[in-house]
């Protein structure tokens, strides 16, 4: 009797949008250039670093993203340093809550892929609100890593075990 078992644990990553610079009007690298070089999977987290009262981050649909329309966001993060979990496959659209900042390019599109290749992608829902949290005061997350390290790996493991009929287990 031969039994093949595969165990896997998906790696979730926390990304600091803008690195040490944070969420600001004119970053050294455009947010979309950065995002286009990054592979985002379901359950990754985006962390936006900004000062309360000076800016905000809006989660919007594609039309609002294209036109910098801030009037009807899906979600509004405005309490300072904020994070959101990318909880489904598909595109996520982020813009500055200040229209003039958005029109000058302070916006971001993130495309999330399925972490499980056996699960078919689902169509994004324009009214879906990703898991979001605002952080301020003493409980703010740790500072962003250096520019050379824009992400932190949280966990990950992959293993395969082969069990033979006589009770011998081989780990590959």
TrEMBL record:
Membrane topology annotation: Lipid-anchor; GPI-anchor
One Pfam family this sequence matches: Cu_bind_like
UniProt KW keywords: Cell membrane, Disulfide bond, Glycoprotein, GPI-anchor, Lipoprotein, Membrane, Signal, Transmembrane, Transmembrane helix
Subcellular location: Cell membrane
Residues covered by region (Disordered): 114-148
A GO CC annotation given for this chain: plasma membrane
SUPFAM superfamilies xrefs: Cupredoxins (SSF49503)
Molecular function terms from GO: electron transfer activity
Gene3D superfamilies assigned: Cupredoxins - blue copper proteins
TM segment ranges: 150-171
Domain called Phytocyanin: residue spans: 13-114
Similarity-based family: Belongs to the early nodulin-like (ENODL) family.
PANTHER family per record: BLUE COPPER PROTEIN (PTHR33021), EARLY NODULIN-LIKE PROTEIN 3-RELATED (PTHR33021:SF185)
Name of the protein in its database record: Putative cupredoxin
